[in-house]
């Protein structure tokens, strides 16, 4: 289930913009988030290659959040921001930071490569919110002049 958090009078946000929505921590949430963010990036005029890369990283981060959320009644909150390029924040109900920045994953393990890939493609950082009960992941992909339509 997808739920918009920020109200809008006409359903659209202008650039620069902030879009925030919540998804339930279920596997289908990844697909819902992918479609919503792809639509936002298209509205902002992000080119196909940059959009595809950003949505791929989003899929990995949201999948991680959905897999590790502690309670099925907890929302996964996504915020997409235009700040000199598209940025993403994903918050879940887990109080744990999922990876150690800069440490390569176990390449033979079933899990763990997606977030490392995200850290290679852009800037990936983690934040534990002040209440100590929720972790947030930030991802930013610098926007080059050619990847945004005029």
Write the layout of secondary structure elements.
Elements (H helix, E strand, L loop, with lengths): L1 E3 L13 E6 L4 H16 L4 H21 L7 E7 L3 E6 L21 H9 L1 E6 L6 E6 L10
Antiparallel strand pairs: 1-2, 2-3, 3-4, 4-6, 5-6
Report on the structure:
This protein is of the alpha+beta class. The chain has a single domain (2-6, 16-144), classed as 2-Layer Sandwich (Heat Shock Protein 90). Helix content is 31%, strand content 23%. The protein is built from three helices and six strands. It has helices spanning 28-43, 48-68, 113-121; strands spanning 2-4, 18-23, 76-82, 86-91, 123-128, 135-140. Strands 1-2-3-4-6-5 form a six-stranded antiparallel sheet. Strand 5 and strand 6 form a beta hairpin. The longest helix is centred in the middle third of the chain and has 21 residues, at 48-68. The radius of gyration is 15 Å and the shape is globular. The model is unreliable at 1-15 and 145-150 (pLDDT under 50).
Low-confidence stretches: 1-15, 145-150
**Order of strands, widest sheet:** 1-2-3-4-6-5
Largest sheet: 6 strands, antiparallel
Query: How many individual domains?
Result: 1
Report the mean per-residue pLDDT as an integer. Answer: 75
**CATH evolutionary superfamily:** Histidine kinase-like ATPase, C-terminal domain
Q: Judging from the principal axes of the Cα atoms, what is the shape?
A: globular
**What is the overall number of helices?**
3
- At the first level of CATH, what is the class? Alpha Beta
Please state the second-level CATH architecture: 2-Layer Sandwich
Helix/strand class? alpha+beta
CATH topology: Heat Shock Protein 90
Quick one: how many beta strands?
6
State the end-to-end CA separation. Answer: 34 Å
Strand content: 15-25%
What value does the Rg take, in angstroms?
15 Å
> Helix-strand pattern, N to C?
EEHHEEHEE
Q: Which range best describes the helical content: under 10%, 10-25%, 25-40%, 40-55%, 55-70% or over 70%?
A: 25-40%
